[in-house]
Amino acid sequence: MTTLPAWDLTPIYPSCDSKEFSCDLETVATESKALEVNLQVVGSDLKQCIQHYELVLDYMENLHAYSSACLTTDTSNPLYLKAMSQVEEVSLVVQHLEVLFLNYLAKKREEVELRTREGGDLEAYRFPLHELLEDQKHQMPPELEDLASDLARSGTDAFSRQQEAMGSSIHTQWDEKTIKTVVQLRSEATNADRSIRKRAFEKELALWKAYEVPFAAALNGVKGTTLTLDKMRLFTSPLDRSLFQSRIDRPILDALIATLEASLPLFRKYLKKKAELLGLTGCAFYDLFAPVGKKGSHFTYEEAQEFIVKQFSVFSKEMGDFADHAFKARWIDAESRNGKVGGAYDTSFPLAKQSRILSNFDYTYSGVSTLAHELGHAWHDSIVLPKSNLLRTYPMTLAETASIFSEFLVFQGALANSTADQRLALVEQFVQDATQVCVDILSRYYFESEVFTRRNEGDLSAGELCSIMEEAQKKTYGDGLVEYHPYMWAAKGHYYSSDFSFYNYPYAFGQLFALGLYEKSRHAGSSFPEQYKTLLSATGSLSAREVASLMDIDLADRKFWQQGMDVIASYIGELCDAPVH
Description:
Butyryl-CoA Dehydrogenase, subunit A, domain 3, three-stranded mixed β-sheet, 581 residues, mainly alpha, 7 strands
């Protein structure tokens, strides 16, 4: 088996201690100070100030993406930790500038209104500038915003880093010769041998139990701080703030959640069928990712590369060429190793106009699908990176569109080339993933809602957090599972973000939105890839509702969300009709 590749970050910076990295840190500080002075000048040009502000943001994003990319591949590396600290320190200057810039825009409100009208020289900035003006209404006085930013380094950000570092490195003895991290234990969830899955699950729970106190303390710190700051910023709740950040409104979220809730019996039916196919009386949490079917579950990395490029190319040659370049230019870090975080993500570097992908490739179809997912994000990046900062920054809801659409392209290609046994495995894999995005995501939404409600009354113990999590899973998975995972609150780093609460429903939004788009593509003909690019290009400069309207979609209409759910339902129906061997 060939060695999996590590990514090449040298086109971004030679290293964390390079002069280029240090120079860009200095550039952020000096340009921020220069703009800060210019914002106070009477008669300063609005357009020039916007462009100057975007330049600072580009440098800041480049530095943050790079230091984060380094640290997530080796969470205890002192050089990477220092670099992250340096970036966080200079980010305080930028965060101070952001406050001043929003106040500057507020003073220029009438000019913004005039110049962003149709035909105005800032017409393209209509939505992002008005969004910033709305954001300004939720801003504390500058001195309090500065204090909040400074305290975050030793508070919520530190708690997040703690969860990330512990979640990637805590380990236990697997056998006489082998030690496994919790990430490696979780990867055994895809093992075909149930005894191994169960053993890994039990050892994983024991690890979380052993370290539950620091994880609970970190989560309480993050959620408590979030509640305090959101209240000070005049948001009615963390969910209210999340909806603003997601560029959607409550009617859209309600339509989405109602669709998910109505689908729960469908997914429970699937889980009971999966238990039957596995020869079990019922699925436990550690059976959720168990492979079904005998063939088609193993891919070399090279096979994964070839297959993804081919399927992307079927949809769009341009998209296929992009994926091919990403593989060949070593944009992907694929190996699972000690100190590297679990899961997968895509990150972009605005100065280099490039992306990088972290994954933990496991030679399964799921690993192929994950690569396709992250390459979808990177493709989205490539479309918006040529735009200026305020016109390309899209919300999480729309961020998942391209990734899930790309996954589905690969899935369709796999089905077209499958045998009967392989098709069973592929359909089950798709439904398995959809269950995570629709059912598990809903459980996380319930969990976080309840945690915020109860955190208002005081700290929550690890036991209480486990109880809330298990109740949320019972409410969604129901009798589809016979055993749950009470420590998912410790395992999922998303809960430890103070910048974005409810880091869950956007995935369901993206899943059903992408499937709805795919249904449209089946009837749109050869013009669709270009229409799709136009939609992705607009994700940074319009609200989610306006982006969807480009395809004549009403996001507050449950009928649209149901179209995406009907795609999933068709495959659940096929699976449930499959004979048991």
